[in-house]
Amino acid sequence: MNEFYRDEWVWITGASSGIGKELVKQASFQNAKLLLASRKTKDLEQIAKELGLEKGKYAIEKLDLENYKQVSIFTKRCLKKYGVPKVVIHNGGISQRSYTRETNLTTIEKIMNTNFYGAVELTRAILPEIKKPIHFAVISSVAGKMGSPLRSAYSASKFALVGFFHSLRAEEEKSGVFVTMVYPGFIQTNISKNALQGDGSSTGKMDSVIESGLPVQLCAHRILHAVANNQREVVIAGIKEKFGLFLQTLIPSLFFKMIQNVKVR
Predict the structure, then answer these.
(1) What's the pLDDT tens digit per position in 190-221?
(2) Keywords in UniProt for this one (predicted)?
(3) I need a surface site. Which of 89, 107, 126, 221 has the fewest CB within 10 A?
């Protein structure tokens, strides 16, 4: 058991499902004090009940990342109630499964607001209150390193997170603000079922590449391990995704041809 998390506040956005839910479970085993944040508070309450979380060791707060202009209000309220956390895990987000030519601007805005601006506003609201070291774990994606079909807005939002938090790290690491960028590949969650189509509706379908991806338990374990060990970056992906990253770096011309025909559903 890692003492890094013991009795320390860990805030997790998007905690009601997928990677976020598993992070809650595994961080609770590390004796962390958990702030579970999501739009779906009933689901959070059910998670807390299932895990038998102890009173005083967790809190549930409603958070709508898409409504990013209100995120600072959420943050200030939580800071007043619980103090500055040791770890903030920016996990909340939504994916996409649509060609760019079929995707309306409203859908693109929804993805950017949820995945990027929500995390940015939460971070900005915390920064003035920091008086001791803090760790931001930012769940980007392999799609935040390379673009692929059907994910233009999603990929853009994940690239944006990388640029923002790389800059923040360069500015603030000497002051005790540590950033771990996390790049998951295909992980066994409902991300593809909840992904948006071009008109903003959910696909309701499980991608075969997601269904055969890495276990969510492994992903959450590696995220918590990376944070506790001050890793600046961690790629959590299978052979195909890692090969794509390798190819993009060493033989980009070949990569750009291959990615046009790769199976991404």
Answers:
(1) 999 999 999 999 999 999 999 999 999 999 99
(2) Oxidoreductase
(3) 221
